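Entry for the shared binder. Reason: the reviewer on the internal report wants the predicted structure included alongside the sequence.
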Amino acid sequence: MRLLAALLLSFSFSAFAFFPVNPLVQVRADVVSAQIYNPYYEAILCEGFAFGRTASGAVIQSRVADIIPAGGYRYAYVNTNAFLNPFVQGWAQVLCRFVGRYY
């Protein structure tokens, strides 16, 4: 009986579990873009941030939160003035979960 209860609880919590994704990040002098792609056969809900570090050391961020259909993709952009303070580094941290019947 305990095994059955533990099994049911693990299935109910895993339905809402977020998993990390590895976005494709491209850095140019004026913009950092992070592409999030959904390779699954089901829609996913993704939430996270894209970051860009400028030559002066300042970190600028942009938030992304969207439902991505199967085979679809979304972008997150961070912009700066390329002439005065260009980007030298960019990265993103995004977590997703399967939407299914739960939204």
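Summary line for the report: The CA atoms of residues 14 and 97 lie 10 Å apart.
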